[in-house]
Amino acid sequence: MPVDVAALLQELDVLVTAGPSRSSWLLRTPDGAAFELEPTTPAEHLNAAQVRIDASRRIDGHSPLLHVGRIATAGVVGRAEAGEIDILTAKPIRLIHAGRIYEAAPAPSPRQPPRHTGKPAWVRWALQRYLLLTPTPSRQPVIAESLGTSQQSVSRSAQSMQSLVIDMGDGLFAPDRAQLLDRWRNEYPGPGGQEFGWYGLDAATKHVEAVVGLATQLEIHTLVSGDVAADKIAPWKLPMQGRVYVTEPIDLADEGFVPVPLDEANLVTCVPRDPTLWRLVPSQENYSESDDLPIADAAIVYWDLLMGGDQDSEEAAQQVSRLLTGDQR
């Protein structure tokens, strides 16, 4: 993956403005220090040889060089800590200038899904989602048809939630959807399944559109969740990562994506284990590229945001939760 110098500096809360020459930048660090540097072309491996190459290629002879690399050798880091050179690395995200080290704050730990043993209660969890998504009473035969199960299964699931679900005579109803959302979130282990990490150079929404377009051609069903879905139903944060559920694996290598580990991906496709994901959304039989994106139900979007692990995602999840609970604040 390419090293994005501006993005790395942003992670470090370093303000960047244009320098006096066409090749230099003015940087201001969180401690108030300001200095001018000329960033080099990012290298994959910042070693002594690369530092010499950078020096031979410099454009502006007046501004000190900022040597940029994905990783740096211990020798290069030692020279930077001694104040001999300035470096910026991606792994770890770190700026060393004049011997001063600036590092990104540790990322918050992602939430861990609830642990579940035994046979997954897909019907019960799907019923909880159904009642969160439907603020009016629904008859059991209608719910059973929507979930692709039997009325008896719906009835058993409802009985296991007597404190949260009541029969209004004309159908099942959740009088306190906020409490039901808490119950579902604390029980649901997630969609599960097999995940595939990808990296692309476009914005997250463009990535998702590309996946959905290709999947449509291949007659593979898709559901968009995470950041991009949240931006569609309850805008709050700029989408940073795409997440698309698919009915079968899809190869994106010919679409400009590179397969990467999940913790480095800005696009994730997933073949979910939960069979009910496809039950609570409109049919995609007539989906075409000219239509809007096929969005997963709001409860799944909420869950994926919560599991995202960053502060912005958690705040975005709270916006989606208001759709589910009817909170109009």
Q: Compute the gyration radius: what is it?
A: 25 Å
Structure annotation, total helices: 11
Residues in helices, as a percent range: 25-40%
What is the mean predicted local confidence, pLDDT?
Answer: 89
Mind explaining what this structure looks like?
The chain has 329 residues and is an alpha/beta fold. The protein has three domains: 5-103, no CATH class; 122-187, Arc Repressor Mutant, subunit A, CATH 1.10.10.10; 194-325, no CATH class. The protein is built from eleven helices and 15 strands. Strands 1, 2, 3, 4, 5, 6, 7 and 8 form an eight-stranded mixed β-sheet that branches. A five-stranded mixed β-sheet has the order 12-13-15-11-14. Mean pLDDT is 89; it is low at 283-290.
Summarize the helices and strands and which ones pair or pack.
Blueprint: H1 5-11, E1 15-18, E2 25-28, E3 34-39, E4 43-46, H2 48-56, E5 65-72, H3 74-81, E6 86-90, E7 93-97, E8 100-103, H4 122-133, H5 140-147, H6 151-159, E9 166-167, E10 172-173, H7 177-187, E11 194-199, H8 204-217, E12 222-225, H9 226-233, E13 242-246, E14 258-259, E15 267-271, H10 298-306, H11 311-325
Parallel strand pairs: 3-5, 4-5, 5-6, 13-15
Antiparallel strand pairs: 1-2, 2-3, 6-7, 7-8, 9-10, 11-14, 11-15, 12-13
Helix pairs in contact: 4-7, 5-6, 9-10, 10-11
List keywords for this structure.
329 residues; alpha/beta; Arc Repressor Mutant, subunit A; 8-stranded mixed beta sheet; 5-stranded mixed beta sheet; 20% strand; elongated
